[in-house]
Amino acid sequence: MNVAGRPMRTIWLAADEQSGGVVVEIIDQTRLPHELVIARLARLDDAARAIRDMQVRGAPLIGATAAYGMALAIAEDPSDDGIEHAATTLAATRPTAVNLAWALAEMRRALAGHAPEQRLAAALARAGAIAEEDVAINRAIGEHGLRLIAAAQRAKGGDSRVQILTHCNAGWLATVDWGTALAPIYRAHDQGIPLHVWVDETRPRNQGASLTAWELGQHGVPHTVIADNSGGHLMRHGEVDLCITGTDRTTAGGDVANKIGTYLKALAAHDNGVPFYVALPSPTIDWEIEDGAAIPIETRDPREVTHIAGWTEAGERVEVRLTPEGSPAANFAFDVTPARLVTALITERGVCPASGEGLLGLFPERRRAA
Questions:
Q1: Average pLDDT over residues 9-31
Q2: DSSP reduced 3-state for 238
Q3: How does DSSP classify residue 160?
Q4: Rounded CA gap, 234 and 239, in Å?
Q5: Which residues are the active-site residues?
Q6: pTM for the structure as a whole
């Protein structure tokens, strides 16, 4: 997608100019929207920290970063013990996003049977393929979701613009490129369909206000940032035609785990007859879990709730306390939206009902595997 008119991705392989070794470069998303900073990952610990501290975030990008993290680890130690240590270290960084475990399993399979001296080349090849596959998957999600937006615009008639609400950030910053929930929006915008996006701020880390708004603005998509609790009001007054969110884990039964607050948007959409779509790449599906109650919910540092960081008018980054000194805070990172509240799932293979049968209709090989 575009940044200041120039296409960019969120992660890419680079060369260390001094050593000639392998490094990975990422957009440091903790510095957005005020600074575009490129961070370099040269070691396993760099990749683990980037995932844990949310320099990269979003299930697909977490998976791609973990894959490259395995490659960086093998550059340090290609032994069997080195592989096990790398996989254990990376798996502990973010428990909810299933792409992380999926990517690590893919890397293990790619390395199986290779001698230690062959492992770095094999790891780099598979990590690069995972990144390219993510781009292709998200582009396909965009094509399938585009049809839903186009249908909504036809239903409104004339030059009326489609009003879309999204929560958190499921754009290209959450993937390698294109995004999941925002991929259909980008495709529709690029095709000239008039639209406008309501961007939830997404407390406590404000991924909507800082990341979604930034990338939509860079690509020229009309949007407005709103407080998290505004969604129901807008739906009740007919200002939302459809909702599209992403997901960090989707169960085999169609339940979806996404950033905290998604469930409330789904409830409001259901009450107001607004379609609620969830866009997901197939690696986000956890075929081992049927019920969303079994999804592990990450809890993060309470300081993310009690404090907020921003930029002063003078261009200085500061962090300030929001809550009374001594007041405890809880920071649940995700919630689960049950399948009954999801109008449909948008995948790279098409759109399906949020149900086990719906998913198996698009992925029949999973039926055979079971």
A1: 86
A2: coil
A3: P
A4: 5
A5: 248
A6: 0.90
